[in-house]
Amino acid sequence: MDVRFAATAFATAITIIDPLGMIPMTLGATARMPAKRRNRIVDQAVIVAAIVMLLFGLVGRAVLHYLGITLPAFTIAGGVLLFLIAIDMLFARPTGAKRTQEEEREAAEVENPAVFPLAIPMIAGPGTIATVLLLVSLAHGDRLNLLIVAGAYAAALFVTWVCMRGSTFILKIISTTGVHVTSRLLGILLAALAVQFVINGLLQTPLVHR
């Protein structure tokens, strides 16, 4: 097993989904709902997000090949996108890669926020989908590496589910400040991973080797 690839996959999955960062969003979207309905909505959101990630993981490589996008190009693009998200995490501000102001206004009017905005775009947003495609491409069709990617996102989704289910209790323990501090620490890690992705993409580009 490629330990380095496994570490990268798990670190990327956890940081891009940001389970603790989902706590305020979950509470905000389900503030006026009883506990049973909130739990049902959280279950639905995680299942929908998992289906979206699996779908893109299965067809992503074929789509990139059809469009003529090389792995180095996608690696660089993915790294740049992740770096932008990391900057937003470091400054504790909403990232446009997850939701826009228009989407926030629409979310406030939705009675069941499971699919929108919790599953999409908060859990399975453009940044998450990009990392799924990126890691699947980096697996190069190796079954063990593909299983590692699947395991990494399954673990990240499980942690996210636990955080969303226990959002009220967790927020009481670590407070809003604790959530922001953790998100900033994850932002630093994500920024480093993003830079490494860009470096790897540049090193794989034929022009660099000329």
Verbal overview:
With 210 residues, the protein is mainly α. It has one domain (3-205): Up-down Bundle (Growth Hormone, Chain: A). Helix content is 80%, strand content 0%. It has nine helices and no strands. It has helices at 3-17, 22-29, 35-67, 71-90, 101-108, 114-123, 126-138, 143-165, 167-204. Helix 1 (3-17) crosses helix 9 (167-204) and helix 3 (35-67) crosses helix 7. It is globular. The chain starts with a helix and ends in a 6-residue tail after the last helix. The model has no long low-confidence stretch (mean pLDDT 86).
The tally of strands reads: 0
The name of the CATH architecture is Up-down Bundle
Largest sheet: none
CATH topology: Growth Hormone, Chain: A
Please give the structural blueprint.
Blueprint lengths: L2 H15 L4 H8 L5 H33 L3 H20 L10 H8 L5 H10 L2 H13 L4 H23 L1 H38 L6
